[in-house]
Structure formats: structure tokens, C-alpha cells
Write a structure and sequence with these properties.
This protein is an alpha/beta fold. Helices cover 44% and strands 16% of the residues. The protein is built from 17 helices and 15 strands. A seven-stranded parallel sheet has the order 3-2-1-4-5-6-7, with helices on both faces. The two termini are 21 Å apart.
């Protein structure tokens, strides 16, 4: 293994680096690597990815520090999970890694060094549509490995930490809660006005427009928002529901969605905007009456944090991780009840002062969810995992 003064830390993003910028886990992996690089640029880190070279968003990390990059080939088809296990183990041994942080499956069973794993959520354990996935052999191996081969678990929210303890039997003392951070509105240009975006979206936004993701996964609970919108249209006939992105779609789900619009009289009120870049989203967060996130369950709810960072009035569920992210800086409601959801949204539609108040509170609260804090807490988890081996980690040349 490497020097006691500079343990070699490998971060495995090989399961995430092909997802693209619209994926929450992809954003997390990019922000974590950037944050760790800024925390201590001279640390002995190696990034393991599935590509032949790092993704473009991380190019500066490798240009301005002594981080290293190694490719771990991801396999497809028959026995791919087991081949990925072996490939990861071989790379860890070849690179003489002292600590491995796994950001996605597979959680390695055979590596000789301590392992830290990030757990995002346990939705496979909680919703019937995931029964097949939760009973699969790879999932069961990963669950076993988290309990028996992992030195520390990083949970991205207290809600996920409770689920890992309750459902997987991991001792709470071995779980570190590391909330996500976001660089979503770090750039001044994202906060500014835009004539081009006003021309594209302006007619959709005035006064009575709601913004939400277009995600047809059942747990995202878009059906309840459609019913709430139909109720609101009785008092606000000009109400518009703007849906961005395009996730978890299938021909059958889209057919059911279209039928719901017809049944609820919403065909002229719902606009599918498709995938949008960050600049578009920030503008829409700032110019719609509310960002509504009706999901039943999230490991964190990164869109909620990004909307808050942009100063949106957020309406989301009063449970799961969303409640701990929003706190008192938004409106929390039982989103399983469409009538309750409509009642929570209604006071915002003709109350610009209230929206401004909530937006300011949301922006202030979001500012505490920094990438720097996420990186520092992750670093502390690494330190705890290595302590039993007599290895010591430092930041900025000072032992922590």
C-alpha cells in the first residue's frame, strides 16, 4: 500500500459517468470530485471511470492537481455484474489503493482495502414496482456487501440513514449523513434576466404558472399534481402547468398520461418543455408561481434544492428527505392528497409578496448546502474508515 502520510484514495464513478448532466447521481459525482479537489488539491486521489478519459466537467481537476485517472471497463450482457466486480477489484489491487469510495453498484466483495459506499435511497425496498429488482442476485449481493464489507456508509440525507439502519440493519454508528451540495446558481449569469428566455417562456409564466418535472415513475406522483391542477383551474382558469425533462417514460405510461389530461380537461393547460439546461431552469424557477415536487419518496430531492437555490417558492411533501431539505423555507404538505396539494398551492397564485418571501427564505437555506461542506464531510468519513489501519489524512497540510 502507499505511504502512511498520503493514503491513496480511489473514487469509483464508473457506474455514473455515462449518465449525463441531467441525472442527479451524475451531478453528485461531479460535484464531489470538484469539492474534494478544492479541499486539498495535493491529496493522493485516483478517479475510476468507465470512459477512456475523464468527463469534460472534470478536466480542470486533472489539469490543476495531481489527481490520477484510470479506466475500469464496464461489462454488458451475461455475467456482467460479476465481471464488473472482478474488474474493480483488479484495478484497486493494481493501483495499490488504501481506501475505495464506491458511488454506485457493484459494491466490491473482494477488495482488501476499506470501502466507503454512498447510498442514495432504498426505494427498491419500499415500492411494489421494484420487487423484481430488489430480489435480484446483484441487488442482494450489494446489500450483503454494504453490511459486511463496507467500513462506512455515506447517506445523502437523514431519511436515507434511517432507512439503511431500519431496513438493512446497518448500525447507526457506521453511517455518516452527508447532505448533497449544489453549484446550480454559482454563476452570476444564471441569476440574470434574459430577453431570449423571456421570448421563449414569457407567455407561459405570468401569475398562474406552476413548474414541475415530467417524470412518469409512479413514486414521483405526477398524477396527484394533475388532479390538483384540475381543481385549481376552477378558480384560476388561466393556470398553466409546465413540465420539464422526460424521465421514466414508456409508451404505456405516456398513453395513460395523455388520457389523464383528457379526463381532467388539462390538454390546453399542460406544456411539456422537454430537457432544459440550467440557465433555462433558473429562469423558470424565478418566473413561475411555484415549483411543485409531489414525489412520495426521495433519498434527497436535488431538484428541490436547486429550485430553492434559484429562489423559487417550493411546494413538496411533508415527509421523506424533502422535508429536511426544505425545512421552514417552503410549503410542506401531504402530496398524496390532491385536494390538500391544491389548497397548499392556491394561496401562492395571487400573492407575489408571499412568493418573494418564500423565495428569499429558500435561497438563504439552500446556501447552507454547499459542495465544500459535502466534500469536507465525505473526507471525514474517509478518515474514520482509515483510522483503524493507522493511516492519517490531512487537509491543507494539517492533520484532521
Amino acid at each position: 500500500m502507499t505511504s502512511i502520510d498520503r493514503p491513496r484514495i480511489a473514487i469509483d464513478v464508473s457506474g455514473l459517468d455515462r449518465l449525463g448532466p441531467h441525472g442527479g447521481q451524475y451531478r453528485y459525482s461531479i460535484d464531489l470530485v470538484r469539492g474534494l479537489s478544492a479541499l486539498r488539491p495535493q491529496d493522493n486521489f485516483v478517479l475510476l471511470g468507465s470512459r477512456s478519459a475523464p468527463v469534460d466537467e472534470l478536466r480542470e481537476v486533472f489539469e490543476n492537481s495531481d489527481w490520477h485517472y484510470r479506466q475500469v471497463v464496464r461489462h454488458h450482457g451475461r455475467a456482467s455484474y460479476y465481471r464488473d466486480q472482478l474488474a474493480l477489484t483488479e484495478t484497486v489491487l493494481r493501483e495499490r489503493v488504501d481506501l475505495l469510495h464506491v458511488l454506485h453498484s457493484p459494491v466490491p466483495v473482494l477488495v482488501p482495502c476499506p470501502v466507503v459506499v454512498t447510498i442514495y435511497d432504498l426505494m427498491f425496498e419500499l415500492f411494489p414496482e421494484y420487487v423484481a429488482a430488489a430480489s435480484s442476485r446483484p441487488y442482494r449481493i450489494d446489500r450483503w456487501a454494504v453490511r459486511h464489507r463496507t467500513r462506512r456508509v455515506i447517506a445523502i440525507s437523514a431519511a436515507t440513514a434511517r432507512d439503511v439502519e431500519r431496513l438493512w440493519g446497518v448500525e447507526r454508528s457506521g453511517i455518516d449523513v452527508v447532505p448533497l451540495g449544489s453549484a446550480f446558481v454559482n454563476s452570476a449569469k444564471l441569476r440574470g434576466e434574459s430577453d431570449e428566455r423571456r421570448a421563449r417562456f414569457g407567455e407561459l409564466c405570468p401569475g398562474e404558472a406552476l413548474l414541475s418535472p415530467y417524470n412518469l415513475e409512479p413514486r414521483k406522483n405526477l398524477a396527484a399534481l394533475l388532479k390538483a391542477a384540475a381543481t385549481l383551474r376552477r378558480g384560476y382558469p388561466n393556470l398553466r402547468l409546465l413540465l420539464f425533462g422526460r424521465a421514466a417514460v414508456s409508451a404505456e405510461r405516456e398513453r395513460q398520461f395523455a388520457q389523464s389530461l383528457a379526463d381532467l380537461g388539462l390538454r390546453e393547460a399542460v406544456y411539456l418543455l422537454g430537457p432544459l439546461d440550467d440557465e433555462d431552469l433558473v429562469w423558470l424557477y424565478a418566473h413561475t408561481a411555484a415549483f411543485v415536487f409531489p414525489s412520495f419518496y426521495e433519498g434527497f430531492g436535488l431538484p428541490v434544492l436547486e429550485a430553492m437555490a434559484a429562489g423559487a417558492s417550493v411546494v413538496t411533501r411533508n415527509a421523506s428527505a424533502m422535508a429536511e431539505v426544505v425545512g421552514d423555507a417552503g410549503i410542506l404538505v401531504e402530496t398524496a392528497d390532491p385536494d390538500a396539494l391544491a389548497a397548499a398551492i392556491s394561496p401562492l397564485l395571487d400573492a407575489p409578496a408571499r412568493r418573494a418571501q418564500l423565495g428569499a427564505a429558500a435561497r438563504e437555506r439552500a446556501s447552507t448546502f454547499t459542495i465544500e461542506r459535502m466534500a469536507r464531510l465525505s473526507f471525514e468519513s474517509y478518515r474514520a474508515a482509515l483510522e483503524r489501519r493507522g493511516l492519517h489524512m490531512t487537509t491543507d497540510g494539517v492533520e484532521v
